[in-house]
């Protein structure tokens, strides 16, 4: 059935209201106390509507977090791979550790160990695409001559993100900008990356 433009707009408004309500409630009450009923009441939609679009509250919050996380953590290309990675990782740390997205992220990480469907969705909607985007940014730097051709880019991505996840999962204080800079420099050195900021690498 073809949906009319007006009903599409109503559906998008309902979707946004649901995601925003879920984030608000998670910040106010904590992930464990959020229910689909409460989300529906806050968003002004029916519980049936939520279950038509999402299988669980975890799925609602995952979509809300993923939307915000991807929008706030782009992979820019200024010509300086170290600076670009620092920008990305610092943005990721801020989004994952502060409201409204931080409480949702913490709850999702806890819940996925008990919910196989949510764990699969996290991999498909968040982790997989982000890792692929990070690897592509490194591959572009590789094509530009900043990173050696034989470098293990998938491992480098794990090295970049691993410490961030580690601190979040263990409820340690998030990395500050100096620590992020040290992390990025360490990973790039491990890759054998060319030093020199934004200057053109010597690929002769």
TrEMBL record:
Recorded superkingdom: Bacteria
Q: Which InterPro entries match?
A: Homeodomain-like_sf, HTH-type_TetR-like_transc_reg, HTH_TetR, Tet_transcr_reg_TetR-rel_C_sf, TetR_C
Per the record's keyword annotation, is Metal-binding included, yes or no?
A: no
The chain positions of domain HTH tetR-type read 12-72
Which keywords fit this entry according to its UniProt record?
DNA-binding, Transcription, Transcription regulation
Name the DNA-binding stretches.
35-54
State any single GO MF term: transcription cis-regulatory region binding
What name is this protein filed under? TetR/AcrR family transcriptional regulator
Whose protein is this, by species?
A: Streptomyces nitrosporeus
Lineage per the UniProt record: Bacteria, Bacillati, Actinomycetota, Actinomycetes, Kitasatosporales
């Amino acid at each position: 059935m073809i949906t009319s433009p007006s009903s599409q707009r109503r559906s998008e408004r309902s979707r946004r209201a649901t995601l925003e309500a879920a984030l608000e409630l998670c910040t106010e009450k904590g992930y464990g106390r959020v229910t689909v009923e409460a989300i529906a009441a806050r968003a002004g939609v029916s519980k049936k509507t939520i279950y038509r679009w999402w299988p669980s509250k975890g799925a609602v919050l995952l979509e809300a977090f993923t939307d915000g996380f991807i929008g706030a953590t782009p992979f820019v290309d200024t010509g300086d791979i170290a600076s670009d990675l620092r920008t990305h990782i610092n943005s990721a740390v801020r989004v994952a550790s502060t409201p409204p997205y931080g409480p949702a992220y913490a709850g999702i990480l806890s819940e996925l160990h008990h919910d196989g469907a949510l764990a699969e969705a996290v991999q498909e909607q968040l982790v997989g695409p982000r890792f692929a985007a990070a690897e592509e940014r490194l591959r572009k730097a590789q094509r530009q001559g900043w990173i050696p051709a034989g470098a293990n880019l998938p491992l480098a991505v794990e090295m970049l993100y691993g410490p961030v996840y580690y601190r979040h999962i263990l409820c340690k204080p998030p990395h500050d900008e100096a620590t992020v800079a040290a992390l990025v420099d360490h990973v790039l050195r491990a890759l054998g990356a060319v030093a020199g900021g934004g200057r053109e690498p010597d690929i002769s």
